[in-house]
Amino acid sequence: MAALVLSVTGFIPQVTTVRIAVGGDWLESWNGQTLTDGTLRRSDVLSRLTTDYTICLARSGKLVRVTRTAMGYGAVTLRQRLLALMAGPSTGEGLAGIEATLPSWLKSGDVLGITRDGDTLVINLSEAFASGIRTFGNEQLLCYSLVTTLLDATGLRRVAFLFDGKAVDTLAGTIWWGGTFLAAPSMLEE
Which contiguous run of DSSP H or E holds residue 59? Predict the structure, then answer.
């Protein structure tokens, strides 16, 4: 129903509402909502549409894919996925032993840019983000939670990281950040 309303009101000029008959009877309510004048508007259905996507958090030293739900319709941006990683696990996920892979104090502004170079996604992160990597904990889980989340979303093969626009070799001493990263399926929980 939502897709129908969005299509009709989005592609036919001057049409802002839709009235629907089911089996010869006019629809008076939809999804528990009484319809004003028996019509549906874009605003009535937008809040009912959601998009599910995955991010990678950690449990017992392994990465685990968890599902998030975005309100509205359309693609979930890479920035939204990174913000979801920064937010960490939900309360229920935390009770199930799922842990954050990034410091929660990171903000949207710490993602300076996202671009594509051939089959490589290039992410430019702030110095504050680099500082978070240096101090947060398991650098390898942190790195590959980013890599897996981003590669899952794009279908690209590699991820490269810049910090304040520059390639750096090391941050916490266990990962060489100056190259590109491929998927690492062995890091995922089975």
Answer: strand 50-59
**CA-to-CA distance for 25 and 18, rounded, in angstroms?**
14
Buried-state track 83-117, b at ≥16 Cβ within 10 A, e below 16: bbbbebbeeebeeeebbbbbbeebeeebbeebeee
pLDDT tens for residues 43-95?
A: 777 767 778 899 999 999 999 999 999 877 667 899 999 999 999 999 999 99
The model's pLDDT over 2-44, given as tens digits with 9 standing for 90+, comes to 778 778 888 888 888 888 888 888 888 877 778 778 888 877 7
Would you state the structure tokens that stand for residue 45, as one six-digit string? 């259905």
Give the domain ranges of the chain.
2-46, 50-185
CA separation (Å) from 189 to 40, 51, 56, 64, 186?
44, 24, 10, 5, 8
The first and second tokens of residue 122, run together, are 């290039």
C-alpha 5 chain-centroid distance: 26
DSSP one-letter code for 76: P
* pTM score, whole prediction: 0.78
